[in-house]
Automatic annotation (TrEMBL):
This is Alpha/beta hydrolase. SUPFAM superfamilies: alpha/beta-Hydrolases. It comes from Streptomyces albipurpureus. Residues 7-220 form the AB hydrolase-1 domain. One of its GO terms (molecular function) is hydrolase activity. InterPro entries: AB_hydrolase_1, AB_hydrolase_fold, Sec-Metab_Biosynth_Hydrolase. Keywords: Hydrolase.
Length: 230
């Protein structure tokens, strides 16, 4: 275990660190003794990146950052630290400098775009009765219900926060595309992946929640990145 880098997992919108549960167990079973999962406030890209960087800086040794969904924007903004040796994107945003997740989504809207609903406090939710169809159609209904009820809504303004200095221009990258993603258009994922010139791109017949529906495949990609990047 000692020679493996620490894997730091970064969640996205509408879910917390627990969304990584199945992937965590897969990685643990493969000998990853040092695993961390950031719990981001989802209040702004700057604050989420700061929280992620604080966790990375607590690690004595190499780190592979793994971001799902909006978590990809977070690792893009936060990932240029000396001990970060690789970035893995799981059905994730990978904005360039001056781009935001909202801008990318508006250019090619995902199928579930209309199922997002703002509340009176400025938070943006996935409608509970549309969550299963929108976010995780390849999971069992019981699991989708729990995800829908426990979803962690971001401040809607976070969608418009621009990346300033993308770490993927400096660090090795890997990318997983979800071909049935209804939260980020699959063609947007492919475009973002291809322009990074990653070490590897894989496509899964998966929903946006591939980290939960395809944990073995996701762990395979993280494991490959960890072995190549260290």
């Amino acid at each position: 275990m000692a020679d493996k880098p620490t894997v730091v997992l970064v969640h996205g919108f509408w879910g917390g660190a627990a969304h990584w549960g199945k992937t965590i167990l897969e990685l643990r079973n493969r000998g990853y003794g040092s695993l961390r999962a950031v719990e981001n406030p989802l209040t702004s890209l700057a604050e989420d990146a700061e929280r992620t960087q604080k966790m990375v800086k607590q690690v004595d040794g190499p780190v592979v950052l793994v971001g799902h969904s909006y978590g990809g924007a977070v690792i893009t903004e936060a990932g240029d630290l000396p001990n970060v040796v690789g970035l893995v994107y799981i059905a994730a945003f990978a904005p360039d400098a001056g781009e935001s997740p909202g801008q990318i989504s508006q250019e090619l809207p995902p199928a579930a775009f209309e199922n997002l609903a703002p509340d009176s406090d400025g938070y943006l939710w996935v409608k509970q009765d549309k969550f299963h169809w929108s976010f995780c159609q390849d999971l069992q209904d019981d699991e989708a219900v729990v995800m829908a009820i426990t979803q962690k809504a971001p401040l809607a303004s976070t969608f418009g926060d621009n990346v300033t200095d993308p770490a993927w221009r400096k660090k090795p990258t890997w990318y997983q595309v979800s071909t049935n993603d209804r939260m980020i258009h699959p063609d947007n994922e492919r475009r973002m992946a291809e322009r990074m010139s990653p070490r590897k791109i894989i496509e899964l017949d998966a929903s946006h929640a591939s980290l939960a529906s395809h944990p073995r495949d996701v762990a395979d990609l993280v494991d490959e990145a960890a072995n190549e990047a260290r």
